[in-house]
Design brief:
heterodimer, A: about 375 residues, alpha/beta, Rossmann fold, Dimethylsulfoxide Reductase, domain 2, 2 domains, 16 strands, about 35% helix, elongated, B: about 270 residues, mainly beta, Pectate Lyase C-like, 13-stranded mixed beta sheet, two-stranded parallel sheet
Chain lengths: ~375, ~270
């Protein structure tokens, strides 16, 4: 089975690596779209630093929205373990990513063993103007919504009502929520970056801060994509900045507009694009004129790529370390079906060694 | 003396950081020194002389003949003098500007007037998102001066505005006046959803009744206040409008009640 292609032609891995290294070495503005486990991400950022490249996650917009809550505003957060053990009142905000359904099922079938130890109650803040996009609910929750209100408008009204301020359109079941919040020792609002836009995320955190002047209240952030959040944390410990960071004179610079890799490709600023998809199932973006080096979990050359190298997935083809929102930190994962496919990290190290005068990656 | 003029020779292949080309930084430099200034941001960055033909000698008056959406940071940190750009510009124009005047005869990208504390900026075309808004990690947005967009602005115009005036002459996208702390935003034409969402204080002025308000804004009737007349005179004297914007007894909403309810939205009543 081939693991490397130049254009659509199968080639030995060493040839593909050499061609990719030549493209990168001659590039004026290389960019990376990351999607790998922690080792792959570390190697990619180290290579970007050597090259003076910019990097972003493959799901750049969704990640940037989640990151913006932390860089532009901040918030009060707790961990999944604390919620499971202490919280008798959980308020879901919007549609939470289906990947977290198992987490909710586990909580739904148990009661807190610390704090007030009362049976768990569930509410859900949602928009009335559109049906839920993410399938059937996994827990039965009391709806908090108002006639004709968007999710952001609903959150604004909820925040005003919790402070007993006047509003033009009331919410259903808000008195029930107030009563429940008064009796619960550790109420928690659960949200993910995909369920709210930037303004909604800020409104939610301000609501939590307001309420904390009288009563305890926290929030649990569940990333829309665990691997993407792992990339954010890895980038933070390596450079001090989350993705959408570029290197100028070897120094990292964070700018979510300037280093938006999809925009750089669309507007033809980037000339070489290292595109990763260690989980497979995606094709590189069509637009732009950048030469694509695809590190893809694939059995065929990636569409439109100058060089494609097949890579394995951490936790499936090889061991690795991935972020898990279930435990709120990184976890080691063993290969479920070990295969000879190289890891993203291994390929990037070979690429670095093939670069003229560059040598090994320091990471 | 003739204005120091930068005539664009070729469109740039990379984003340029033009924050160094302001009257105060160019005052002490010769033309040769200016030509050697590095403004490119890629691995092989261009210098001023690679992209511009330089003529004139008065650094207090700078003219860019030809613009591009990759011209970032035009008039960034400007303290005095004047800059005129004939063409488009990129992101963060007039960033942290404290004085002087900037005129752009085209459209601009995101974060125009971010962190500006003084001076006057006029943009003939459209502006991107976050007009006057803070960059990542900053507490406040625009903190003084006058920023006029003659075209349409994008989303989140006036994010965390703390002081000064922003005028959007052909409408704007969603969330104008988002997280506004104080100051004044004038909007002529249609605006997107939720004007004033999360605003603490400050004033949003419309030439018509705003649509899609958050339910945390409440109508306050038509208060008879001398403020409307004063403001109309100010807008005409600053050449932002050529006729009264609000007129007598404008309509008023107060909000955002989700925050403190101390902000206000004033609008011209239909038929007045």
């Amino acid at each position: 089975m081939s693991v490397a292609w130049i254009g659509s032609q199968p080639v030995p891995l060493a040839d593909a690596v050499r061609t990719a290294a030549k493209l990168l070495a001659s590039s004026r503005c290389p960019v990376f779209s990351l999607d790998a486990d922690v080792h792959g991400t570390r190697s990619a950022i180290a290579l970007a630093a050597v090259l003076g490249a910019a990097y972003d996650h493959r799901s750049g917009d969704a990640v940037a929205r989640e990151v913006a809550l932390f860089t532009d505003h901040g918030g009060m957060f707790t961990t999944p373990g604390e919620v499971r053990r202490r919280s008798s009142l959980i308020v879901l905000v919007g549609d939470i990513a289906p990947a977290h359904a198992e987490l909710f099922k586990g909580w739904g079938g148990s009661s807190p063993d610390l704090g007030d130890k009362a049976p768990r109650r569930w509410f859900q803040v949602s928009a009335s103007d559109r049906p839920t996009r993410r399938g059937k609910a996994v827990v039965k929750a009391v709806p908090l919504k108002g006639e004709g209100l968007s999710l952001n408008a609903t959150l604004a009204v909820l925040r005003a009502e919790l402070q007993d301020r006047m509003v033009a359109a009331p919410l259903q079941n808000v008195e029930r929520l107030k009563k429940a919040m008064a009796s619960a020792q550790f109420p928690v609002f659960v949200f993910s970056g995909g369920s709210l836009d930037q303004a909604g995320l800020v409104m939610l955190q301000d609501l939590i801060v307001d309420f904390n002047s009288r009563h305890r209240l926290s929030s649990l952030f569940l990333p829309d994509d665990d691997d993407a959040w792992g990339t954010v944390l890895t980038s933070l410990w390596m450079t001090g900045f989350p993705p959408r960071t570029g290197f100028i004179n070897s120094l990292p610079s964070y700018d979510p507009v300037r280093w938006d890799v999809q925009r750089m490709i669309r507007e033809r600023e980037a000339d070489v694009h290292v595109w990763m998809s260690a989980r497979g199932g995606e094709d590189p973006p069509k637009r732009g004129s950048a030469a694509v080096i695809a590190l893809d979990k694939t059995e065929r050359p990636a569409r439109g790529a100058a060089v494609t190298i097949a890579v394995g997935e951490a936790g499936l083809d090889h061991d690795g370390v991935r972020y898990s929102s279930r435990v709120g930190t990184f976890t080691a994962v063993r290969a479920a079906e070990p295969s000879p496919l190289p890891s993203v990290s291994a390929v990037l190290r070979q690429l670095a060694e093939a670069m003229p005068g560059k040598g090994t990656l320091i990471c | 003396m003739k204005a120091l003029t930068f005539t664009l020779i070729n469109p740039p292949e990379e984003r340029l950081d033009l924050s160094i080309l302001t009257p105060s930084t160019l005052a002490e430099l010769t033309r040769n020194e200016i030509a050697k200034l590095r403004i490119g941001t890629s691995r092989r960055p261009a210098s001023v002389g690679d992209l511009f033909k330089i003529t004139g000698s008065d650094p207090a008056n700078i003219i860019f003949e030809g613009g591009h959406s990759r011209f970032d940071g035009v008039a960034s940190g400007m303290t005095g003098g004047s800059i005129r750009l004939v063409g488009d510009a990129g992101n963060q124009i007039a960033r942290a500007m404290t004085g002087g005047s900037l005129y752009i005869d085209g459209s601009v990208g995101r974060h125009a007037g971010s962190g500006m504390t003084g001076g006057r900026v006029e943009i003939r075309g459209n502006a991107g998102d976050n007009v006057g808004g803070p960059l990542a990690g900053e507490i406040t947005g625009m903190d003084g001066g006058v920023l006029i967009i003659r075209g349409k602005a994008g989303d989140y115009a006036g994010d965390r505005l703390r002081r000064g005036t922003i005028a959007l002459c052909k409408g704007c996208g969603d969330y104008p006046g988002y997280r506004m702390i104080a100051g004044t935003i004038v909007i002529l034409g249609r605006s997107g959803i939720m004007p004033g969402y999360l605003m603490k204080r400050g004033t949003l002025l419309f030439d018509r009744q705003p649509e899609h308000l958050s339910p945390t804004f409440l109508p306050c009737g038509e208060p008879d206040s001398p403020f409307a007349g004063l403001l109309d005179r100010y807008l005409i004297s600053e050449k932002i409008t050529d006729r009264a914007l609000l007129g007598a007894r404008p309509g008023k909403f107060a909000g955002d009640n989700a925050v403190s309810g101390k902000g206000e939205i004033l609008y011209r009543k239909k038929g007045r």
